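Hi P.,

Sorry for the delay on this. The queue was packed all week, but I finally got your sequence through. Input first:
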Amino acid sequence: MLNKYVRTTIIAITKYILPVVLLLLLAPQFVQFSSQLTQTNQFFQLHQIAFLLVHSLFYLALYWLWPRIIHVLVNRSSHDITQEQINSALKAKWYLLAALVFFEVLVWWR
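Then the structure:
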């Protein structure tokens, strides 16, 4: 019983908590040490409305087109892909969108 609990805890830590902690620790380092990002930030402040509109459209397109992209890639693949792998790839959409939104908020928060 204890062994199963430890196994579940380790899986949860490596799958959810560790990537979030690493992302929170490393993202400011990438943003802070780039002089090009300050120039880019000034550009985005000038074009803030257009930038938000284009990014919103990109996120909506990614959200709606993700299942089609996965099914096209599955159909082109010569490997045997199980339904569990397809479902996992379809759920990866949320991780990708969360990471993109996180970096978006990080840039705007700065």
